[in-house]
Amino acid sequence: MKNQYYISAHCSISDNIVHYNNEVVFEGMETDIPGFLLSVYQHLGVKYPKFYKMDNLAKLGWLAAEILLKDFDKEKYQPTDIGVVLTNASSSLDADKRYYDSMQEIASPALFVYTLPNIVIGEICIRHHFKGENAFYVFDRFNADFISRYVSVLLETEQLQACICGWVEMTATDYKAVLFLIEKDGVMPFKTENINKIYNPTQTLSEKEGF
Q1: Check whether domain 6-206 has CATH 2.40.110.10, yes or no
Q2: Is the model's pLDDT at 135 over the cut of 60?
């Protein structure tokens, strides 16, 4: 790659704590995942009725993007210049299981809508009016090198001018979202080592495989 790109902002949501650029911006006390996600939504003070219809994966990614982009000046770009590239390990398995369970009586169309992992990207793009390149990839574990290389190609070839990328994982018992805003100007270089430091500030990847 000829050019250097930068992490202009980053956000993480896990273990009932929300971080924005390494600072704790919210900490919840709920013991269940839906309750915690709702508390984050209420803390943000936004009014977006569609949030209540989303599955947990979409809620998690939507909330992370909402926090990530709180200081983002999207007016600098055209809607087609901003893309979203997300990854996880479980795809949409959480919603898949819930939909399967609903089929034992009456299959739920509301759950069926979320049985594709890229729906979370659609929810983010609808909210923020992004129309650029988007993709969702599934890996065994967080793959910072892939994210760095893939997003850099999109920027290098000028398919995008800015990109939201990272990890959004949801299971029945655990969750983690780590999103990065990548632009052509900034302070922190968009490199594999920096991505990994943000994703896992206190532990190695092997300590909690998949998360």
Answers
A1: no
A2: yes
